[in-house]
Give the backbone structure.
Amino acid sequence: MSASPTFTGSAPRGTRVRATLRSEWIKLWSVRSVPVSLVATAVAMLLGAWLLGAGYQSEWHEMAASERTSFDPTYACLQSANLAQLLIGALGVLTVTGDYETGLIRATFTATPQRGQVLALRAALFATVVLLLGATVSLAAFAVGQSQFTEPVPHATLGQTGVLRAVLGVGLYLMLIAVFGMGLGVLTRSTTLALTALFGILLIVPSVLTMLPGRGAEGILPYLPAVAGSQVLHVVRSGNSLGPWQGTALLALYVATTGAAALVMLRRRDV
Amino acid sequence: MCAVIERRTAARSARLRAAVVAEWIKVRSLRSLPTALLAAAVFSIGLAVLVCASFHARWDALPAERHRAFDPIDTNLGFLQITPVFFASLGALVITSEYGCGLIRGTFAATPQRGLVIAAKALLVGVIGWIAATAITCAAFLLGQGRLAGAAPHVGLGSPGAARAVLGGGLYLTLAALLGMFVGVLARNTAVAVSGVFAILLVLPTMVDNLPHKFLWRLTVPYLPSNLGLSVWHHGHLPPDLARPGVGVLGLVAWVVAIAALGTVRVRKRDA
Amino acid sequence: MIEARGLTKVYRDTTAVDGLDFRVEPGHVTGFLGPNGAGKSTTMRMILGLDRPTSGSVKVNGREYQGLVWPLHQVGALLDARAVHPGRSAYNHLRSLAAANGIARIRVDEVLETVGLTGVARKRVGGFSLGMSQRLGIAGALLGDPGVLLFDEPVNGLDPDGILWIRTLMRSLAAEGRTVLVSSHLMSEMALTADRLLIIGEGRLLADSAMNELIARHSAGRVEVRAADPLRLADDLRARGGRVEAGADGMLLVMGLGSVRIGEAAAAGGHVLHQLRDVTASLEEAYFRLTEDSVTYRAPVPA
């Protein structure tokens, strides 16, 4: 038998990591749901800042004295992050479960058998996009909201203590939620289950705890992922909540744990 | 002439019956639906019992203003602030799960009258939803009041306003399921529909709630589905400025009809 | 080359693949045959490192798939043609796969041209017919110009032109010295495409041989005979131990005696023969004889 010919069309270009990054970048931007959801997030943030800013401005004189003293003009404009987290979290889930539910994941892992690398780099890319977009949109939302406030409504500027941190914190918070959603997506491999888990943890558990009387429930509340993580958005700190960086670190810990569990499952399971 | 019309209506009702039967078979063979309904029931009843038991255990330790503000019915039925999200998500899944796996093409091929398919589904979601919802609120109420008995004030189903709150809760859950279903028709995608449902029922209300209760607030906030729902089932002192119970029911129906109209137009226009 | 040793996959309580040993050599189209549920797809997934063997191993070019850094340059696979994101265009789907293996963008245009999808490359895959999806899957398999190709049911959904095209493609890939493994349950198609066969049933290897050997072995030596006096010849043949059935128009179907011994018997008995012909089985017949004992999901035979 003659020596069997080798078939390697052309030598691969670049390193393994760079190839995976390039591939995941192409995937990220080549489905419509990604740009659509990101634009929707930006619109929700800006519209929310504008409406809420106008609302507070027009009815400031009706507010009680206690409400006025605890008024946080920064958070008032950034609250729509609560809405944006639904979009970004769901998009995070979909970037993973979409692959599993269509079966595309098999093609992905056939092209790159290093499964952990694929998902870790996908998460890194998506997280970076969300961080940058979140921070940029948040700056704009802050500007839109503050432009509504005139005397006597207090007006925040980026130079004040904690304000810049809160504004850029939107990007940080949304980024962590996005990766949380991706981790849950890998663990469940199902859009429905992952969304239920994500929204359950972020929204349902805190509502349930606030219904219970007594110190036990009140004591747990600040340590829940969404409650802890969203402290970074507040300039005026309330009651027994965690500090902004403590809260963010705790949310990051939850997300990292979920991510680690996801990577372990990814390695162990059949695709 | 009359005979023709009669035959035509007869044929139409037969078609609707056939569509309902087809949908019923699909629903019955769907394994995830009973599981999900059971999960919603366990969550709701469990939460009601847990809340009532906690009040029972801590009653003497609670400050006097908590005692004054305490309403045994509202405390018991507090799960109605969360369970509607489950019902609405389930309603949405009835539609989007068919789109997700491409089954909808088969469904529309079998019954090309798409409006009829949606109507049949809505009928089933409404009936199954109402039975499940009312069973859940009744069970939660009876078990919850049982847990309150002994320490905290408690009432029976016969006491004034109790039956209205329980039945109102069931009605709200049913309308939430229908609302979710039509959001599903509109979105045709699980992720979008479920996110939308959470946004409308859970996130939006808490966001706008902090605004001063003035012109803008009064015009919008009481008419959000969750606050209309609150008007329907709430028993004690209603948070100020919310709509009256009758307006609550009408408002919820109006929401369902509006989203149904949008959804039906879209279903007719779009390719499956 | 693909080489399996003691390859086994157990799911909870069912053994999908049970101790497979085989080698798929370059230069041939090797057909991978077996009834539904025999373990073909599981084996293919294990070759591609998607499922982990419970025991044993399977190697591609001497390496485990999981250890390949640039796998598409060595192995191309068509598994499930519908396994694409419906919202992505064919071009972007292939471009992301190419990028993952450092394959130049121009190669994407080349394979699109090869499978005839250039005209619809920018369209969303969700609108593709099954045949177009199949072509897209084949394009993905060809991207890295690999020496080993796996095709799982490649003719599904293709029209007659498409079937002829893929048949020619697979034969020419093998002729270039590549290893080609094709699974299918379409016997007639396999008979035209493959020159070697790997047959499994209930997860076990039933046959690993060249197509013509397999057919010869399972043709069971049937011979058609026409003679001037069929009744007397039948008696003579039965006397020599043959089994004889009467066919149409006085034709005899003889089993258990080769054509040589039949000819000798005819000469000895002074018979006039009009026809003496060895009957070769079709692949389908050979296959059914082979798998008779190992069909997992056999339809109940109507009484």
Q: What stands out?
A: Residues 84 and 125 of chain C are 7 Å apart (CA to CA). The two ends of chain C are 47 Å apart (CA to CA). Residues 221-279 of chain C form a domain with the Alpha-Beta Plaits fold (CATH 3.30.70.100). The mean pLDDT of chain C is 88.
